UniProtKB/TrEMBL annotation:
SUPFAM superfamilies: P-loop containing nucleoside triphosphate hydrolases. It comes from Naematelia encephala. Belongs to the RuvB family. This is RuvB-like helicase. Residues 69-351 form the AAA+ ATPase domain.
Length: 470
């Protein structure tokens, strides 16, 4: 870990600010593709898995062009082959206002909400509505502010003179505007922008024309040119909200505060219908645009048959995002039924999906991934230690090797060596079992661990019964 916790007062401040937690995918910054969507060997934290990365890139390109929605993709492959990593890479490549919603299939099962409601909410969170609004602004340089107080001082009125290079106008001020001007410390010579609808004042900077007026001015004073043309201008502001946010804000029982609490409860279908038709209206008027985003459902085999049939239907709806799912299961039982199918997903849904498969990494790729993770965790590995970890990654699992980086580092620090050496990795390997060794241990200690007693007892029971019969 990069946590350089130090209680030594001489340690620099930088050490303290570096104390951030490092997540499993924090080294991933994108899919690492070039402009032609060809995967680079090592880029943006991504190594190997070229075919799957390119496929993900093609899908992304289609979303960015706004061409597809309501499709579903499955990323299938063995554990720790980068399925979640690829989804994270996709999320980072999407534009800032394209929604990316991440859901783990088991989150759908909650007591507060039905399964279909939480899936519907996830769907609607993944659809953005880009709303365009025109606001009228008054922008100009302040020539003079005059404030008249009544005799008692309780009411204030005033006048504000603003100019552009072409015109000058005097505006009457109410007491609220005067308060705001005083709060923002607006002086003659400042260039300001006033939102006509809300009356909000923002200071854009000082006019160049007044630059020489004062000698003592802070180094951070920003100078701007005095605006030209009309004082009143129109500006288009664009902001993106998700359909789910619109639902919650308009839901009478919840109100927008529920967005912060995260406790939104169920939303009535009638309200959703109303909002859909309102949004359709805005689209026709050219006020809004739909931005279909991505819903990523990890560990999708945890969904049950009801969820799958809901997905089948929901994907065909008009307002559906792109749904990306990931699973590491082979042929397994579909939850809620006694039937088996590939990845635990019903065949009719599978048939509608584009399937991307990931494969196990080879020796060089494993080594590169271990190397990148070590750099991310601020751990210095000597070449032999890196080789050993890579070899472990190949023989046990990539995750196990990555998990050993931090303990090895700790063991090295205890030995007071700055770099992690083979010895430290060996020690870490000794302290922490991989799955295989743990299974071996479980086999050896069979019957001694909790949770097995019942089974063992019943096995003994059967044996006993057989003894009697023979
Ligand atoms: N191609 C890659 N480039 C860089 N890092 C990778 C790559 N593939 C996987 N990793 C890293 O390896 C670790 C395991 O990968 P990940 O969690 O994506 O596996 P997964 O396929 O989702 O496995 P599971 O099926 O168990 O969920 C993560 O820390 C991930 O960031
Ligand atoms: Mg995963």
């Amino acid at each position: 870990m990069a946590a350089n916790i130090s209680i030594n007062p001489s340690s620099s401040i930088r050490d303290v600010t570096k104390m951030e937690r490092i997540g499993a995918h924090s080294h991933i910054h994108g899919l690492g593709l070039d402009a032609n969507l060809e995967p680079r060997a090592s880029s943006q934290g991504m190594i190997g898995q070229g075919k799957a990365r390119k496929a993900a890139g093609v899908i992304l390109r289609m979303i960015q062009d706004g061409r597809i929605a309501g499709r579903s993709i499955l990323i299938a492959g063995p554990p720790s082959t980068g399925k979640t990593a690829i989804a994270m890479g996709m999320a980072q490549t999407l534009g800032a206002d394209v929604p990316f919603v991440m859901l783990t299939a088991s989150e759908v099962f909650s007591l507060e909400m039905s399964k279909t409601e939480s899936l519907t909410q996830a769907f609607r969170r993944a659809i953005g509505v880009r709303i365009k609004e025109e606001t009228e602004l008054i922008e100009g340089e302040v020539v003079e502010i005059q404030v008249d107080r009544s005799v008692t001082g309780s009411t204030k009125t005033g006048r504000l003179t603003l100019k552009t290079t072409d015109m000058e106008t005097v505006y009457d001020l109410g007491s609220k505007m005067i308060d705001q001007l005083q709060k923002e410390k607006v002086l003659a010579g400042d260039v300001v922008s006033i939102d006509k609808a809300s009356g909000r004042i923002s200071k854009l900077g000082r006019s160049y024309g007044r630059a020489k007026d004062y000698d003592a001015m802070g180094a951070d004073t920003r100078f701007v040119a005095c605006p030209d043309g009309e004082l009143q201008t129109r500006k288009e502001v664009v902001h993106t909200v998700s359909l789910h946010e619109i639902d919650v804000i308009n839901s009478r029982t919840q109100g927008f505060l529920a967005l912060f609490a995260g406790d939104t409860g169920e939303i009535k279908p009638e309200l959703r219908d109303q909002i859909n038709s309102k949004v359709a209206e805005w689209r026709e008027e050219g006020k809004a645009e739909i931005v279909p985003g991505v819903l990523f459902i990890d560990e999708v085999h945890m969904l049950d048959i009801e969820c799958f049939s809901f997905l089948n239907r929901a994907l065909e709806g008009e307002l559906a995002p792109l749904v990306v799912m990931a699973s590491n299961r082979g042929i397994t039982r579909i939850r809620g039924t006694k039937y088996k199918s590939p990845h635990g997903i019903p065949v009719d849904l599978l048939d509608r999906m584009l399937i991307i498969s990931t494969r196990k990494y080879d020796a060089t790729e494993t080594k590169e991934i271990v190397k990148i993770r070590a750099e991310e965790e601020d751990v210095k590995l000597v070449p032999d230690a890196l080789d050993l970890l890579a070899q472990m990654g190949l023989q046990t699992s990539l995750r196990y090797a990555l998990n050993l980086i931090a303990p090895s580092q700790l063991l090295a620090t205890r030995r007071k060596t700055p770099n992690v050496e083979v010895e430290d990795v060996r020690m870490a390997y000794k302290y922490f079992c991989d799955v295989e060794r743990s299974a071996q241990y479980a086999k050896e200690t069979s019957g001694m661990m909790f949770g097995e007693e019942e089974l063992v007892a019943s096995v003994n029971g059967v044996n006993a019964a057989m003894d009697i019969s023979t």
